[in-house]
Amino acid sequence: MFDAHRHFSSAKACANALYATSKTGEWGRLKGMHHPSVGGIGALPEKPLPTAELLYEYVSKQADLQIAEVGLDRRWPDAEAQQLFLLEVLDIAYILERSVSLHCVRRDGLLLGLLKRQGKHLPTLLWHGCTLSWESAHQASRMGIILSFAPSLYTSALAREGKRLVTLRYALETDYALEMEEPYEAYLENHLDAFSELTDTSCDTLIRNNDEIRAILTNQPSAR
User: Fold this and answer.
1) What is the dihedral of CA 217, 148, 102, 151, to 10 degrees?
2) Is 38 exposed, middle or buried (0-12, 13-18, 19+ CB in 10 A)?
3) Given strand 100-105, what is the order of strands in its sheet?
4) CA 185 vs CA 149, 164, 189, 191: distances in Å
């Protein structure tokens, strides 16, 4: 099954997954990844944000490179700079027809409002590690945003929605961040089984859905 978001590490990237990094020093290592792996580069405000021009330079030169790990995070200062960087990145992704995996920590309403104001000039968006309220999740889904559920879902209030989760535009992700690769497959399978039980949806259906999401995120003709 395609994993809609996992972290890039020192282990060889060969899984059917979108490998994301927010470390500019790793950007170059995600260029030219081999199928079925997909690379996504971004930056978070825990460190000084790079210029949007630098990100454009990397992404524009690599046709299959996506944008991941950008967004708003209340734990870090200078919310205005975060918003400005995100808006610039959204414009880049829209122009280059790349998907964006959004990172959001305690800025849900602010991020939804920002995206709504962008109107139709938005790239394909995935809300990474979604634990929104049901109302916000429903609003985001209606805006065309893919809600990506990681194992963190199960300890959130959103998990109480059960079967209703698969009425949204959704994907599954592991958000796997360990350096050791050995536990990964079991971690992915456990998440798949748990979500299947939570939503009363067959694993085959969930796998097909994630395969379709992969095509959408990578702008493949089969997704149109």
Assistant:
1) -130
2) buried
3) 3-7, 17-21, 38-41, 66-73, 100-105, 125-127, 146-149, 170-172
4) 17, 27, 6, 10
Question: What tokens were used for 101?
Answer: 């995996």
Task: Using CA atoms of 36, 152, 125, 46 in order, give the dihedral in degrees to the nearest 10.
Answer: -100
Contact 67, 44 (CB under 8 A): no
> What residue spans define the domains of the chain?
3-223
Q: Which amino acid is at 79?
A: A
- Tell me if the domain spanning 3-223 has CATH number 3.30.420.40: no
Helical H runs in the chain? 52-60, 79-96, 108-117, 134-142, 184-199, 203-217
DSSP 54: H
Provide the angle, in degrees to the nearest 10, between the axes of the packed helices 184-199 and 203-217: 110
Q: Could you identify the residue written with the tokens 């979108």?
A: 18
* pLDDT tens column, 84-143: 999 999 999 999 999 999 999 999 999 999 999 998 889 999 999 999 999 999 999 999
Q: What does 2-35 look like in DSSP terms, one character per residue?
A: -EEEEE--SS---SSEEEEE--GGGGGGGTTPPT
